[in-house]
Design brief:
Elements (H helix, E strand, L loop, with lengths): L1 H113 L1
Length: 115
């Protein structure tokens, strides 16, 4: 009787161990699938990051070029404005000089007319 009991106990233990082994195998399989999925997602993410980094670098370079072009345009306009300012101030100074000379000539004529 004891032998039968041990055989039954052994049979149930084997079944339980088999179920545990099957569950463990299934868990391992799912973990491996998860690891594969994670590796694939990591690879995809790395590709996307590299592509976005390249895009951002190209955009930064483009913006730097635009800034350089715009700076050059503004420097040219500034030079033109400075040249115009010098001409305008020079013209105004010449006008003042001519008015003073005209005034002197008028005063000299008045003196000559009085004599």
């Amino acid at each position: 009787m004891a032998a039968v009991f041990f055989i039954i106990l052994y049979f149930f233990s084997i079944r339980k161990i088999s179920k545990l082994a099957a569950a463990l195998t299934e868990t391992i399989k799912k973990l491996e699938e998860s690891q594969i999925a994670i590796k694939e997602e990591k690879a995809v993410s790395e590709i996307k990051v590299r592509a976005r980094t390249r895009e951002l670098n190209e955009l930064a370079e483009s913006l730097e070029n635009k800034v350089a072009e715009r700076t050059q345009e503004l420097q040219l306009k500034l030079s033109e404005l400075e040249r115009f300012q010098k001409l305008a101030i020079g013209r105004e100074l010449k006008m003042i000089e001519l008015k003073e000379e005209l005034e002197k000539l008028k005063n000299a004529k008045k003196k000559d007319d009085k004599k």
